[in-house]
Every structure is written in C-alpha cells, then in structure tokens.
Amino acid sequence: MIRWIGFLLAITILLVGARKHLSLAMLTGTLVLGLFTMSPSKLVSVLYSAITSTNTILLALALTMIPIIGGVLKVSGQLDHIVQNLRIGKKAFLGATPALLGLMPLPGGALLSSPLVEQAGEGVSDHLKAAINVWFRHIVYFIYPISYALIVSTDVANISMYTAILYLSPFFFLSIALGYFFLLRKVDGELDYTDGFSLKKLMVPLSVLLVAPILHFALFQTLGQEFNEVATFIAISFAMIASILIVDSKIAHLKESIKLMKPWNFTVLIFVIYVFIDVFKASGIEGMISSLSLPFLILSVGGGFFLGLATGRIIIPASILFPVLMSTLGTETMPPYIFVITYLAIFIGYAITPVHPCIAVSLEYFKADMKEYLKELFWPIMISLGTAVVVYLIFF
C-alpha cells in the first residue's frame, strides 16, 4: 500500500507541477517515488547511476544543442529565408510552414509560425488557423529522428529509431491526409510573392535542418542501435557547427541564441527524465501495475491518451507508460505495433489539451475559441484514435 501511495503522490506532483515547471516537478516526483519505494541508500545509488551514464550524458549534450541551432536560425533571419522562398500554393504553405519550423523544438515554436499562418491565411477563420498551426507543426514528430519525442520515446521503449519511424510512417501520411481533408480543404485563394525567388536563401538554412537527420541515419546504419546516442550527438554537433558557419555575426548570433533559448533548461530536463525512468524501474511499480490485469487496450491506448491529455507532453507519458507496458508483456523491447498505437494515443491527447503550450499560445495569438478549435480537430482526432484501436484489435 505504501508503494501505491508514493506512486500516486509522485504522479500527482508530476501532472500538477508540470504546468508550472516541468523539470522541478519531475525531480520532486522522482524523489517522492524513490523515498516511498526504496531505502535512501538505494535511491542515492540509482540517482548516481542515472546521472553518470555515458549514454544519458551524450543524449543530454546532444539535445541541448537543438534549441541553440533553432535559435541561431531564428535570430539570424535564416528561418525567414526558408519561408519567403517556398514557392508553393496557399494550402501547402499553411501546412508546410508550421511543419518546417516544427523540425526544431523552439520554445513557443507555434507562436513563431503563427504570424506566417496569419499572413497566408487571409479569409480563414481564427480557430481554423489555430488548428492548422498546431496540427501540422506536430505531425513531424511521427517521422523526424532528431526530435525530443522520438529520441526519448524509442530509447525508453528500447526500439530502433528507424523501426519506429517505419511503423509510424502510415500514421504520418494519415495525419497529412486528415489535416488536408478536414482543415486545409476549407482554405481558398492563392499567395502573392513580392520578392524574387532565391534558391540559395532557401537551401542554405534548409540544409542545416536536414544535415542532422541525414547524418544520423548514415551513422545509425553504420554503428547500429547500441551506438544510437553517439550517432545522435555527432549528427547534431555537425548541424550545430553548420548553423554557426552560415550566419554572418557568428559569435553574436550564438550568444543571442543562447540567451534567447536558455538551453541549460533542456540539459536539466533530459537528466531529470532519465533519473525518473531509472527510479521508476527500480521502484517495483511496473510489476504492481502489471498485476492489476487491466485490459491491455485500456492500458496502452486509454492510458496514453489520458497522460497525453493530462500532461500536454509526449515524453512524460512515454517515460511512465512504456516501462509498464514492457513489464506487462514480459519483454525488454516494446513490440513495434504496441509502440505505435501507444505513441499515437499519447499524440492525440497532446494535440488537444490546453495544457500543451503550443495550443495555448496559438489560441491566444489568433484570438480563437477553445471549443471551436476542438470542433475543427474533432474528426482528425476521432479517426486517429479509432485507427489506433483498430490496429490494436488486428495485431494483438
């Protein structure tokens, strides 16, 4: 009973506190969970092991560089160059712009793409613009290997990044189709470009966004899954160097980016996430939840959707739920189709909750109503959730 109390108290702290300060909430919840489920000496040992792990250190350093890269591209105006030289139709522009900016997890990134959606979305209702901005910004998380969501989720599930992407790809294309049919299809008109097209201004910053996933894939194929963290660190390091080399005021832009993005917050967050995962695994809670004999569909799809909705995150639900699911299945590696339906369920909850900062800032920017926003996303969400259930029933 004391372990259940500690677990429920830790989850409550995490869910409530994450709205104010994610890292502090996770650290506090981790300590509470540890103190309720193990001796102080064991807790110290688990904490030390987690923070000194070579893989964790490499991953933390790599993911710390991502916001710096995004910040350099932002403050130098390179992101604007991409947008201004995308010579595509209005519908495609509205979908592609949030997606491109979504390649870098900029804090408040949905707010960054909002003016572009506003500019291109003349005549489009405010709640529809908000829905387009959020939906297309985040569906890249299904396939983009240099994203927090996929890196951490696949690591926790102990599944190959590219196996996960292969299985998630159909849902990525389904999301594009749903976004087009239920959102972009309502958009009329064309875009007018006043400035001349520049291939160089388009390709130079775009190459920075693409070099990391391309290099990561090459290294992953060469080194294998066991060196995934090394591959990630090397790939993002190259992208970091490239982002600095393409700008004029290299040191000035780097300093401004660091000041703007506060990358140390991401460093702390990654360490805290892996500390939580290790304490959770050592606590014995996985086995306790497995012994409840909950229907697996409720545990994976229902649990994923609820935690995504409650936290407004992908990483936290994955960190909590994936170890439980693997323990229930009695495997050290999550089966790909279970990973996919659970990840999709988490994403669905994440895409509609006001706890998710991107939704909050989009609604505020466009002065959109939450109820109308949810109406726009009702069918994409319901079809996606139904698809997850159908896939479960077919394969499990």
Mean residue pLDDT: 84
> What is the CA-atom radius of gyration, in angstroms?
21 Å
Q: Biggest sheet, open or closed, and with what strands and sense? A: none
Report the helical percentage.
over 70%
Helix and strand content put the structural class at: mainly alpha
Which spans of ≥5 residues are poorly predicted at pLDDT below 50? Answer: none
Our estimate of the beta-strand percent is: under 5%
* Separate helix tally: 20
**Intertermini distance:** 32 Å
Gross morphology: globular
- List the helices and strands in order: HHHHHHHHHHHHHHHHHHHH
Total strands: the figure is 0
Question: What can you tell me about this protein's structure?
Answer:
The protein is an all-alpha fold. It has a domain at 139-192 and 285-396. The protein has 20 helices and no strands. Helix 5 (78-84) packs across helix 11 (199-223), helix 8 packs antiparallel against helix 19 and helix 8 packs parallel to helix 20. The longest helix is centred in the C-terminal third of the chain and has 26 residues, at 370-395. The two termini are 32 Å apart. The model has no long low-confidence stretch (mean pLDDT 84).
